[in-house]
Amino acid sequence: MKTKAAEDVIQFGTRQIRYRLHRADRKRLRIVVSPALTVNVFAPKNAKEDQIREAVKKKSPWIAKTLDKLENYHPLPTPKRYVSGETFVYLGRQYRLRVRNGPKQPAKMLGRFLWVWVEDKNDNKSIRRVVDAWFRKRARETLDRYMDKCYIIASRHGVPEPLSVIRVMRTRWGSCSPAGRITLNVKLVQVPVHCIEYVIMHELCHLKCHNHSKAFYALLTRCQPDWRKRKETLDRVRL
């Protein structure tokens, strides 16, 4: 059972590293630096505060280096305005938004353009709803297709059949619950196909190995020998 996360900060040279501390029923301390530039520390419930801070301090060079690397790769995205000419990404490729006045209808991708028709092309909220609906529909079709493809491979290695859902996730591309349900981020449809396959295969392997042990990575390597290269590409994408 997890407890409410607490926030803390350590000094690394002239830099402050803020992190969220999560206590749970676990044996070892784990530090996670996410693509969202957040630092989360997962510690055993009975670990002492000074022990945790010392462990984070020892890892501070690695934490700082990882944060710099991620920030360098992922400049903060500009908030979308949902106007003609704006760029949207689908399966790793850029497409321009084209908005026209007309009877409202589902968005369509034609060539390198995503076309949207609304009654008032200055109504950004309406445009956003149409674009979001298009991405949700494509996410379901695309992620289901690659889930089926990846499971054909994973099933040969004893991975049980998954239950999966797709929803908006703020800081993760995917997750696997203890009950065996895989959740995929709707935004995953924006990244290249080989990255989609990596995320899905990663979560499928968690159905058999519920942690990031040597056995888990051995299984992932058997199912997807080039997963490290795929992960490197995905790590350059900001959620």
Oligomer: single chain
**CATH T-level fold name of the largest domain:** Zincin-like
Structural class: alpha/beta
Overall mean pLDDT: 90
Q: Which CATH architecture of the largest domain is right?
A: 2-Layer Sandwich
As laid out across the biggest beta sheet, the strand order is 1-2-4-3
- Rounded radius of gyration (Å): 21 Å
Helix proportion range: 25-40%
CATH class type of the largest domain: Alpha Beta
Per DSSP, the total helix count is 6
* Topology order in helix (H) and strand (E) letters: EEEEHHEEEEHEEEHHH
Q: For the terminal residues, how far apart are their CA atoms?
A: 28 Å
Overall form: globular
Residue fraction in strands: 25-35%
Specify the biggest β-sheet: 4 strands, mixed
The number of distinct structural domains comes to 3
The CATH homologous superfamily of the largest domain is named Metalloproteases ("zincins"), catalytic domain
What low-confidence regions span 5 or more consecutive residues with pLDDT below 50? none
Summarize the structure.
The protein has helices spanning 49-58, 60-73, 124-154, 193-206, 214-223, 227-234, and strands at 6-12, 15-24, 30-33, 39-44, 87-90, 93-101, 105-110, 113-118, 163-167, 174-176, 181-185. The protein has 239 residues and is of the alpha/beta class. The relative contact order is 0.10.
Detailed description of the structure:
- With 239 residues, the chain is an alpha/beta fold.
- It folds into three domains: 6-73, no CATH class; 87-137, no CATH class; 140-234, 2-Layer Sandwich (Zincin-like), CATH 3.30.2010.
- Helix content is 36%, strand content 27%.
- The strands form three sheets. It has a four-stranded mixed β-sheet with strand order 1-2-4-3, covered by helices on one side. A four-stranded mixed β-sheet has the order 5-6-8-7, covered by helices on one side. It has a three-stranded mixed β-sheet with strand order 9-11-10, covered by helices on one side.
- α3 crosses α4, α4 crosses α5 (214-223) and α4 (193-206) crosses α6 (227-234).
- The mean pLDDT is 90.
